[in-house]
Amino acid sequence: MEKYKIITYKNELLRKKSEEVKNIDSSIKKFIEDMYSVMYKYNGIGLAAIQIGVPKRIIIADLSRYEFEDKFIKKINVALINPVIVETSEREEIDTEGCLSVPKKSIDVKRKFWIVVKGYTIDEKEITMKLYDLPARVVQHEIDHLEGVLILDRDINKTGGK
């Protein structure tokens, strides 16, 4: 039996704000390994801890397998603990997003084109990253999960672009 499963948008846990991680210990490190296993199993490119039922402020993103035309786009593969967006572009772009917790739906979402995000690595080091385009979109999407926000809430076709 699987230890963790993706929970879907009907589960109220996805609407709760996730709690800060106070201590990056061996159990957190093992949990992040488990998150990667689940994300790869479901062919995801990002995952928030809450999506597998754990309300901790942890996200992962792996875009290392993608090719980007823009040389400024980082091919990230990162786990961020307690991530916070500290700066954003004024420029916004609309693109179609999917979500492991909202299966079989593609939704048009407006996001900031670039962001600066701070967080802690699995090695307990604070990092700051400036991300553009798809990596920025993925990190914004996953941080939304930590706040209890789903792509269903950001559907520009229903919200008018909010």
Protein described:
With 162 residues, the chain is an alpha+beta fold. It has a single domain, classed as Peptide deformylase (Peptide Deformylase, Alpha-Beta Complex). Helices cover 21% and strands 33% of the residues. It is built from three helices and seven strands; from the N terminus they run αβββββββαα. The strands form two sheets. It has a five-stranded antiparallel sheet with strand order 1-2-3-6-7. The mean pLDDT is 93.
Key phrases:
162 residues, alpha+beta, Peptide Deformylase, five-stranded antiparallel β-sheet, two-stranded antiparallel sheet, 7 strands, globular
Summary, kept brief:
By secondary structure, the chain is α+β, with helices and mostly antiparallel strands.
